[in-house]
Amino acid sequence: MFDIGAGEVLVIAVVAILVIGPKDMPMALRTAGRWIGQVRRMSNHFRAGIDAMIREAEMEEMEKKWQERNAQIMRAHPGDEMTPLPPAPPEGAVDGDSAPDPEADDPAPAALPTPAASAEARAARVTDTPDDKVEPQLPLDSDGASGAEPAKKGKA
Fold first, then answer.
1. pTM to 2 decimal places
2. Cα(57)–Cα(63) distance, integer angstroms
């Protein structure tokens, strides 16, 4: 802000010590610090007020531009105003045209796969096999006898 060099600050300090004296120097520096703080606070407050006024002016300009652009669009498309949607058909009503729309996002209901049976239903189908089909037994001992009891470990 002020273009003061180190030599100039030294000259000011020597003059202040000679004029004010070393005894009153701390009180003088505190007073000068308070004044500088007040000046800074006032300048910051003033700067904030100016910035707020500039922002408000810019917002007003932008709002005017938006209003002008909106008016241009409304003049260019006068019949394209928003119209209410047609009423929805009742739930039980069936349209005469039951063919699916080929350009629709969702697939046709008939094209949807049927849901797979639940795990319980699949398990019930497996257990409903006739008794004449017996599951093969795996050999449990090393000699390959399928009907023998497995050898017990420990005492023979």
1. 0.36
2. 10
